[in-house]
From TrEMBL, chains A, B:
Name under which the protein is recorded: Transcriptional regulator
Positions of the HTH cro/C1-type domain: 35-63
A GO molecular-function descriptor: DNA binding
Source species of the chain: Trinickia dinghuensis
Pfam families: HTH_37 (PF13744)
InterPro entries tied to this protein: Cro/C1-type_HTH, HigA2-like_HTH, Lambda_DNA-bd_dom_sf
Amino acid sequence: MAKKFAELRDKMSPQAQARVEARVKEVIDEMALGELRRARGLSQEALAIVLHVKQPSIAKLEQRTDMYISTLRSHIEAMGGQLEIIAKFPEGAVRIANFSSL
Amino acid sequence: MAKKFAELRDKMSPQAQARVEARVKEVIDEMALGELRRARGLSQEALAIVLHVKQPSIAKLEQRTDMYISTLRSHIEAMGGQLEIIAKFPEGAVRIANFSSL
């Protein structure tokens, strides 16, 4: 999956790649899935191709406020990222392992 | 939720903000949900009471490798934690906002 994203990105001009990188770096905080996709320089159509779905499915997913972790993981990986599930406590943070091996 | 957190954070001193960031970076142990519960000193029975379910539901959930984000969130919150969904990219990490307001 990540491989396909790399292929898409390699087709972008160096300027466009630099622009995407700068934009992603700027991002520290919180983004909705649609914002994140745009920050990655991807269209809903491009992401749909990577995920073997139709563009409206991407549009719909980006509006959802709940979904299976596996669905979110595929979506993030299609954008070239890695999903991390963290439980934060006053004493520290723990990565939840249940879902890592999927 | 995100807004409220941002407001809280903005009220923190730069030193406190840096401390929080360092702690988030310093992350993390990886644990399965059952290990995490035990590390929190909780029994399945205790967690079941908090979540208004029966103990076997907790046992079952701890074995799952996929679930709805809202289910995981309730489970983490019942242990006194906060769920954070992060997308990691080579250029940086982004907190996914879609699920924050549930």
